[in-house]
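Hi, here's the filled form for the chain we discussed.

Project: internal
Contact: R.S.
Residues: 397
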Amino acid sequence: MVINTNTAATNAAYNLGKNYADHERNLTRLSTGLRINSSYDDAAGLAVSMKMAAQVRRADAYSANIANSRSFLETQDGALKQLGKMLERMSELKALAHDVTKNSGDVDLYEKEYIQLQTQFALTTTEKFNGISLFSPTSTPDPLFLNNPERGDQVQISRPFFGDSENGSFWNVGHSNYSVISGSFSWREAKADAEAKGGHLATITSQDEWDKILSIGNLNSSNLWLGGTDENTEGSWEWVTGETWSFTNWHPGQPDGALVENEDYLHKFASSTFWNDWPSDNGNPGLQNETVGYLLECQVGLKDIPWSDLHASIQQVADARAQNGAEQMRLQMEAELNATNTTNLESALSRIQDVDIAKNTSDLAKTRVLIDAGTAMSAQANSSQQSILKLLDSTRN
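And the returned structure, exactly as it came back:
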């Protein structure tokens, strides 16, 4: 028997402290629902669970991106459906315009509706989804790409291009078409030839018309007759169509009242600039016998559009809707794959970090009993030294 060291009490205190620590750890796990609450609990498991948790968050974000992309395609499909309906009606109007029992006034009414549909078609192709164009803003298809954050691959979201009917890209009823007619013509011969072709010498009364003329691409800095003259009203320039002179970008001071009778207009095209090449004002008609071509302007009518243009446009919209449907189906499959992967990731993460409630409840009951027992044994260990005191008392007697 010793006095200085109470080994039994020390062991009882050690075990009691250990049971207290286990008891507190079980309480923490049950209150948080997590098996790992600090790096001390499971250092390697904590590192793996952090990476997995980040991967689950990325998968959730990708799921949201897929849902937004599907909404984009659904909106695009709605616009394509409307474009298809417009083209169906436009082709119907063209067919009606060829009815031999319809007079020119009837055809004009068909053309008015056609032009309105043509304008609406152009507006519909500029629709956006949250500021992103549903269709290509360029002259070629311009797809978007949905990036998978884990695999690194891409899912294409098509944005087809549809020519803008307002700019005369296709079936542009109500607009003017321009073409260069080469040959040896006086101004009057050019005027007569243009009228025989169902048009007139080109007139330019707006910047928009000028831009369209420059876009035809085969001017080659040529000298070409245009439809300007003061033939009908001496000293007062006008276009052959009767339009007043309104385009302001001509050579300064021209034309003006100094022009002599029967002066007609020759235009020189060069790059993207232009200027007047006027005859002298000495009474000589001057340019009327030049050997040049002319610029023909023709109004496109409903009967004039090739059926092939409308057929090609209808096919283009049909192809775009089919592509849209295929991409929606792929996104559906991608969403399901992502959901499956996310579920499996969460299951693996749960096995690492989540607490087993049944096991920890059992451990909690065990540590509680051990604490009670340890407390009692610690008291017993501390009271065991009483026997030594009795021995000491007996020596005094």
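Let me know if anything looks off before we file it.
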